[in-house]
Structures are given as structure tokens and as C-alpha cells.
Amino acid sequence: MAQFQIRPEYVSFDNYGTLISWHMNDTARELTRGQLDDEQFAAFTAIFRRYRYDAVLGDYLPYDTILQNSFDRACKRHGIESTPEAGTVLGEAVASWGAHDGIVEPLTTMGKNYKLVILSNGDDWHLNKSVARLGADFHAVLTAEQAQSYKPRYQAFEYMLETLNARPEDFLHVSSHTRYDLIPADDLGFTNKVYFNRGFDPHARAYNYRTVASLGEVNAMLGL
């Protein structure tokens, strides 16, 4: 396993989907139960995902509001009834999920050797619930609420740099999302980037990242 040429000061992570397991479709299924067949629901989840991406490109709103607005748009697109509590229900689900299998042990090892950072599109209260389930000590947990901006907007990454008084080259950034994380990180000059391939986003190999299937592979790259 090739190692990084320069030892980073920080290893930064996306949280939801990358470290914490992602079950948004399970909750969306409950909220739309009886209104969509399986084929329709597959199309619904695809457009719901795209509306979430579109929503975070604008001005900051609380994440539960982002979820509500995106869910409303997906329901309208499919001609079904939404529910005014959808954002709250979806947000509570986000805060309830646990770590992916194979995360806690290698993350703990990494945290004993590097400063770990989370840069998340969740709000403070989501991360307050989730981070404890990861079992590692984090140097900083940074949220969209703090940055007043969501990834992939540059402002979110710039907030991390400013908060830590750091440069892009001081980081190894790890994410399972090319569109939200790795593309804007590359635009801003983050040299060390890892795509933790969980099948969420299409590959974007021109953006100079390495692909792994486990956190243990990242530790090997770091010489651990």
C-alpha cells in the first residue's frame, strides 16, 4: 500500500455515509408508505437525493429544514402527499444512526497518531448525538451550522481552514462523497484525498484522489 509523501497534520472526515451508516431511504419509505410502489419509490429516492444536493448549494438553513424542503419537492414531483413533520422525523433518524462496520477500531488507532477532524453537513445537535458512537477522540467537530454553509460550497472548507489556522496541504481528507467533498476539496488545493467507496457517488478520477474500501487501508497509507 503506497504511503503519503507528506505526513498530514490532520485527518479530516465527512461523517454521514462515510463514518456513520446512512439509512435515509428507510425513513423516507416509512414517510411515503402506501403511496408508492417499489419502482416508484426507487425513482423517488433518486430525486430526493438530488434535491438535497440542490438545497445545500444555497444559503444556510437548518439541516432539518433542508430535509423538509427536499422531501416536499420530491413528493410534489411524484404527485403524492408530503407531511409537515418530515424534516423533523428525517433529522431525528440521522442523529440515531450508528457507525459503519469496521470503523471504530481503525479510527481509534488513527486518533492515537493523528489529529482527527469532522467536517459535516449536519448541524450541531446531530453531531452531538453521532460522534460519541465513533469511539475515537476528535480534535475538532465542525458542522454546517457553525460554518453557516454546506459542502460542496467552498465556505464550508474555508471555515475548517480558518478555524484550525491550517492550509489545505496540512490535511488528508476522507469521504465517501465525490460531489460533496472531493471535488471542492481538490478545487481548493487539498492534495491528499481519499474516496471511501461506498457506492454513493459516481467516480470523478480527474480530481486526484485515492480509492479505498476500508479505513484500515487509510491507516496503511499513513504508515500505521
Q: Describe it for me?
A:
With 224 residues, the protein is α/β, with parallel strands linked by helices. The protein folds into two domains: 10-20 and 98-221, 3-Layer(aba) Sandwich (Rossmann fold), CATH 3.40.50; 24-96. 45% of the residues lie in helices and 12% in strands. The chain is built from ten helices and six strands. Strands 3-2-1-4-5-6 form a six-stranded parallel beta sheet, with helices on both faces. The longest helix is centred in the N-terminal third of the chain and has 18 residues, at 38-55.
Summarize, please.
The chain has 224 residues and is an alpha/beta fold. Helix content is 45%, strand content 12%. Helix 3 packs across helix 4.
Summary keywords:
224 residues, single chain, 2 domains, six-stranded parallel β-sheet, Rossmann fold
The tally of helices reads 10
- Mean of the pLDDT scores? 95
Rounded Rg: 17 Å
**How many β-strand runs?**
6
SSE map:
Blueprint: E1 10-13, H1 24-31, H2 38-55, H3 63-78, H4 86-96, H5 104-111, E2 115-120, H6 124-130, E3 140-143, H7 144-147, H8 154-164, E4 171-175, H9 178-187, E5 192-196, E6 210-212, H10 215-221
Parallel strand pairs: 1-2, 1-4, 2-3, 4-5, 5-6
